[in-house]
Amino acid sequence: MKELVKYLAEALVEHPEEVRVSQVEGEKSIILELRVASSDMGKVIGKQGRVAKALRTVVKAAAPRGEKMVHLEIVG
Amino acid sequence: MKSVEKTGKTVDEAIQAALEELGVKREEAKIEVLDEGAKGFLGILGARPARVRVTVDNSLDAKVNAAREFLAGLLERMNVSAEIETEIGEDQLVYMRMSGRRMGVVIGRRGQTLDAIQYLVNLVANKLPGPRARIVLDAEGYRDKRAETLRNLATRLAAKAKSERRKTVLEPMNALERRIVHLALADDTEVETRSEGEEPYRRVVILPKRT
C-alpha cells in the first residue's frame, strides 16, 4: 500500500525525490501519511480536493478486503 | 517536436531562456549545445555568446506512452494483471481499454474507481507539454454497459413520471452520466429533464410536461 501511494504521488509532483510515505498502524485501521514538498501540495490535493479524493478512492480499492481499513492522509 | 535556439552569456543562461520560452522543465527536453561560447580577452576580444538548441516532444504519442506506462505501473501495484489496449481517436481523444481478471477492483462501485484512475491518468499524461490529451479509460466494456443501463433507467423512469404525473428524481451521477440520461430523453416530448443540486450530489430530475 505504501508503495502504491508513493508511486502515485511521485507521478504527480514536480519534486518526486521529496515524496515520503509513512504508515501508522492502529487496531482497526492503517493510516498512510503522505508528505510532499510544500510547493507540491496543490498537486496532490487539487482544486476542491479532487486529486486527493481520486488518490483515496484508488487506495481504498487496492486495500485487501476484510482487513484493516486504510486511510490516506496528506500531511503539510 | 518543437525546438528553439537561444543564445546567452553562458550555456546555462541560454538553456534557461529556451526552457522558459517552451514552458517546459529541463528533464522533459532534449538539449544540444551548438556553441559553448567564449569569454574572450578581458571580456571584449573574441567574446562569443553560448548557443543552444532545445527540443521538446509535444506529440500526443509521448502523452499516450506516459499514460500507458503510468497505468501499467498502477495496476501492478494494485495487484491487478490486465491487458491495456490503446486506440487513438480524433481531437486528442485516446481510449485505453483494460481487460483481465479482477476488473471489478478497477471499476469499483458505480465506476468510482475507474473514474478516479482515469482522472489521475489524464493528470500524468498532461504534465507533458503539448495540446491537452483526453484519455477515456474503460475496463471490460463497463462504460458501454453502464450507458445502456442508464438509457434503460431513463426510459423506465420517464414512463413512471408520465403515468404518475409527478417529478421523478434519479440518484446522484457525474456530469457524463447525467448527459447520457438527458440525451436519452431529449426526443421525448412528454417529459422535460433537468439537473438539480450541487456536485457531487447533482442529480437528474424528470418532469412530466403539462398537456
In a nutshell, what does this entry contain?
The complex is a heterodimer of chains A (76) and B (211). Chain A is α+β, with helices and mostly antiparallel strands and 76 residues long.
Give an account of the 3D structure.
The complex is a heterodimer of chains A (about 80) and B (about 210). Chain A has about 80 residues and is α+β, with helices and mostly antiparallel strands. Chain A has one domain (about 1-75): K homology (KH) domain (GMP Synthetase, Chain A, domain 3). Chain A contains three helices and three strands. Chain B is built from six helices and nine strands, in the order βαββαββααβαβαββ. The mean pLDDT of chain B is about 90. Chain B is α+β, with helices and mostly antiparallel strands. Chain B has three domains: about 1-55, no CATH class; about 60-140, K homology (KH) domain (GMP Synthetase, Chain A, domain 3), CATH 3.30.300.20; about 145-210, 2-Layer Sandwich (Ribosomal Protein S8, Chain: A, domain 1).
Keywords for this entry:
heterodimer, A: 76 residues, alpha+beta, GMP Synthetase, Chain A, domain 3, three-stranded mixed beta sheet, 38% helix, globular, B: 211 residues, Ribosomal Protein S8, Chain: A, domain 1, three-stranded antiparallel beta sheet, 6 helices, 9 strands, 27% strand, elongated
Largest interface: A-B, 16 and 20 residues
What is the CATH superfamily of chain A? Answer: K homology (KH) domain
Number of domains of chain B: 3
What amount of the residues of chain B lies in strands?
25-35%
Radius of gyration of chain A: 12 Å
Strand count of chain A: 3
Report the radius of gyration of chain B as a whole number of Å. Answer: 26 Å
What characteristic shape of chain B results from the CA principal axes? elongated
Placed side by side, the strands forming the largest sheet of chain B appear as 1-3-2
End-to-end C-alpha gap of chain B:
60 Å
Fraction of residues in β-strands of chain A: 25-35%
CATH topology of chain A: GMP Synthetase, Chain A, domain 3
Q: Supply the number of structural domains of chain A.
A: 1
CATH class of chain A: Alpha Beta
Shape of chain A: globular
Please describe the biggest sheet of chain B, giving its number of strands, its sense, and whether it closes into a barrel: 3 strands, antiparallel
- Report low-confidence residues of chain B grouped into runs of 5 or more: none
State the assembly state of the protein chains.
heterodimer
Mean pLDDT of chain B: 92
